[in-house]
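Board work, copied verbatim: LysR family transcriptional regulator
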Amino acid sequence: MSRLNYHHLYYFWQVAKSPSLTEAAEQLHISQSALSAQIKQLESSLDVALFVRQGRKLVLTDVGRRVLAYAQDIFNTGEELENFLQKDTVAQGQHITLGVQSNLSRNFIESFIEPLLQSEHVSFSLSSRGITDLLNGLVNHELDLALTNRPILSESKDTSWQNQLVARQAVAIIGPYGQKPDLPFPEGYRDKKWIVPGKNTDIRSAFESFCATHQYQPDIKAEVDDMAMLRLLARDSGYLSVLPTVVVKDEIQSQQLQDYESIPQAFESFYAITVPRKFAVQSVLDLIKTAMTTYDVKL
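↓ predict structure ↓
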């Protein structure tokens, strides 16, 4: 077999990842006919069929899927190497890119990145994204680390996620300062209205279990998915809320809000998500270790 043409393999990789040959050609800035010719040359040199046509679509053959797995490894490693050479030259300092789940507590994010603000040798970019965009950013090496409030499960063999718990924050009943009920839960809370996190969140599930244990039916005024908005409503509405105390630490210190009582066994967890890399970014490893030490998280 002739020596593998990596230029042709790169074109195959781009076509296999794209919804259509047209989009792949546009992204590569070549004509469809030229791109098709490159793929046919690769198939000829390998003596295999990589695609079959089904209607207007090109579908990978079994061999094509295996070749794609190798191509993923080859070109992902190449992109990782390029990023490593750009970011990790000690003489130039380091620059790392962080993504955070869009509904995370801003107070927690600030505490997490505090070591970077104090470092003279590391600069960083920080972007807020949805989960899908975060994971795509990690896979495409746009992000060095993603910060989320739940671990990510690997749904395919092509991608494996490294989930590291970096903090667990206790969840409490938060209300206006100086208005804590004289009676404990649930007796003192019969006429209260609540602003709570959205359904299908760990905090909401813990709160519902807590209420069920005490045979208490909360009068829910609003459900809010975004932690920043939940913080504002907890501060300004006069209603009770359920959230980690770190989210409203400034309001508690300024005596706008008060921690009425903790909800047993209720926590919000924060995870640092990365992908396996041959060239580990030391600043990212240090950031994770510092957070784990700060919040006393054990490996």
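The longest strand covers residues 257-274.
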